[in-house]
Every structure is written in structure tokens, then in C-alpha cells.
UniProtKB/TrEMBL annotation:
This is Oxaloacetate decarboxylase. PROSITE patterns: ISOCITRATE_LYASE (PS00161). It comes from the Bacteria. InterPro entries: ICL/PEPM (IPR039556), Isocitrate_lyase_ph_CS (IPR018523), Pyrv/PenolPyrv_kinase-like_dom (IPR015813), Pyrv_kinase-like_dom_sf (IPR040442). It comes from Kutzneria chonburiensis.
């Protein structure tokens, strides 16, 4: 299946108004398994690519070209299954967003996700996120919508406002991004079932929810999310976490040590395994005014 056919397939599935469950894919085997098991979509997780592909935490260290190349590999491995692809902040200004959309589309993705964090971004379930003004992100979103050559490419607008600014601002931004033309809206890191329900009620657009193991958002069931009208539920950490635990357990057994010493229970602890503390120290050393 070509990228165009995958995009048409994702659009058709969205039109059915049934929840699309998209497990995280980050390498060839994860994408191949998602395809063979028959999921309706796979989600290119930036955190998974950073950790599994480069041994890095999800704090904005990967480049557009690195992510584009991984998107191309995974789109090919998924075959007929559409790929929903994380593109962080678009890797720069609106001009950079235009190139990012063109490169991702050429790589065969069915959907591209952009977020309103400042660069460098952080995992949505880590603290101390910084945002760009909503008007600035609307400009980026407009550039993305204008850049696609295939109108079936789904553009997903993510807001990370819930953490630093509260749910009211997150919902305001979500509706502004929907009004600006985003196909799907992603409010990152709601912190309770009541917030999940409120977003479903108050945001006038198809919705994506991110279910991260050990993250800030309750792991609500697919049936309940479907009832609430969510369009997409991504599970970015589920395959990655299982693979990492299997490797950790096997290597600990080989070394004769207890894997519990290293086992993460939340995203920050997982990223510690791939250098979060060390990279954070570097960032703090060169922080403006430090």
C-alpha cells in the first residue's frame, strides 16, 4: 500500500467514528507485529525512537531527518496499516514545519502530530514544560495544513497546556486549533477521569488521547473511550515498556543481579535508563543566566 492509500484508509476509519487503537511503534519488529496482529494504525512514538533508536531521553534531542528516516522505515514495515507520526514541534519555525510536513508525507505517513511546546520539547508526562503562545502555534498549524500535497494527510494538533497552564487553557487552545483547521485534537496529560470526560464534552473536534504507562493520565478502557467519542487512543509505551523489561530481566539474570533495581514505574524513571539525569545536568549548565 502506498502512503496515499494509507492516508485514505485512515480517513475512512476516522469517518466510521469508532475508536482507533494505535500501539507505539519504534523499530522494524514492533511495526511488523502491529501489522500482523491487525491493528488499525500504528503510532510512531518519538520517545520510543529516542530511547530504542538512539539511547536518548525524550527531551527534544532528535532531529527532523532522524525522525523522517525512522518514519520511512516504519511506514514500509507496517504495510497496509496507516502510520500516525509524532513530529514534536515541527523542528523549528513555520518554514521548518513546511519542510517537516513534506518530508513526512514523502516518507509515507498517514497522519502527522505537531505540538505547542517550545523547543526543545519534553515528553508530555514530564514536568516543567514550556509552551509557545497559542497564536504562534496557529501559525505553525497553518503552515502544516498549507504544506500537505495530499489533502488526506491527517494533521493532529497537540496542546501541552494542561500541565503548566491548567485544563481551562488547554481546552481553549484545543478549540482554537480545531477552528484553525486541525483534523484531530490531542490534549496531552489530562489528570483524571473527570478531565478525560470534560475534554470529550467541551472540545469540538475528533480527539486523540495518549495512554502512557505510569503517566499522568488514567489508563481508561477502550470501550469507555469509544463511548465518550474519542477518535484515537495511542499506546506509545506499551510495546516499548514490555521490550525494555524483557531485555532488563534477561540481562540482569545474565549478570546475576536483581532487575528490580533498575525497573522504572513512570516515564522519568524510564528515561533515566537512557541518560535523562546526565542530559538534564548539561542543559542546566548551559541554561540562560546560569
Amino acid at each position: 500500500m502506498t502512503g496515499q492509500a494509507q492516508r485514505e484508509a485512515l480517513r475512512a476509519r476516522l469517518a466510521e467514528r469508532r475508536l482507533i487503537v494505535a500501539p507505539g511503534v519504534f523499530d522494524g519488529i514492533s511495526a511488523s507485529l502491529v501489522s500482523r496482529i491487525g491493528f488499525p494504525a500504528g503510532y510512531l512514538t518519538g520517545a520510543g525512537v529516542a530511547a530504542a533508536g538512539f539511547g536518548l531521553p525524550d527531551i527534544g534531542l532528535l532531529t527532523q531527518t532522524e525522525m523522517t528516516e525512522r518514519a520511512r522505515v516504519l511506514a514500509r514495515a507496517l504495510g497496509d496499516v496507516p502510520l500516525i507520526a509524532d513530529a514534536d514541534t515541527g523542528y523549528g519555525a513555520p518554514l521548518n514545519v513546511v519542510r517537516t510536513v513534506r518530508e513526512y508525507e514523502a516518507a509515507g505517513v498517514a497522519a502527522i502530530q505537531l505540538e505547542d511546546q517550545a523547543f526543545p520539547k519534553k515528553c508530555g508526562h514530564l514536568p516543567d514544560k514550556e509552551l509557545v503562545p497559542a497564536a504562534e502555534f496557529v501559525q505553525k498549524l497553518g503552515a502544516a495544513l498549507d504544506a500537505r500535497t495530499d489533502p488526506n494527510l491527517v494533521v493532529i494538533a497537540r496542546t501541552d497546556a494542561r500541565g503548566p497552564l491548567g485544563l481551562d487553557e488547554a481546552i481553549l487552545r484545543a478549540n482554537a486549533y480545531a477552528a484553525a483547521g486541525a483534523d484531530v485534537i490531542f490534549v496531552e496529560a489530562p489528570e483524571g477521569v473527570d478531565e478525560i470526560e470534560r475534554i470529550a464534552k467541551e472540545v469540538s473536534a475528533p480527539l486523540l488521547i495518549n495512554l502512557v504507562i505510569g503517566g499522568l493520565t488514567p489508563l481508561e478502557s477502550s470501550s469507555r473511550l469509544d463511548e465518550l467519542g474519542y477518535a484515537i487512543a495511542i499506546q506509545p509505551s506499551l510495546p516499548l515498556g514490555a521490550a525494555a523489561w524483557a531485555m532488563l530481566s534477561t540481562l540482569a539474570e545474565l549478570a546475576g543481579t536483581d532487575p528490580a533495581r533498575w525497573a522504572p514505574t513512570k516515564p522519568a524513571e524510564f528515561f533515566t535508563l537512557v541518560g535523562l539525569a546526565e542530559w538534564s545536568a548539561i542543559g542546566e549548565r548551559f541554561r540562560e543566566g546560569a
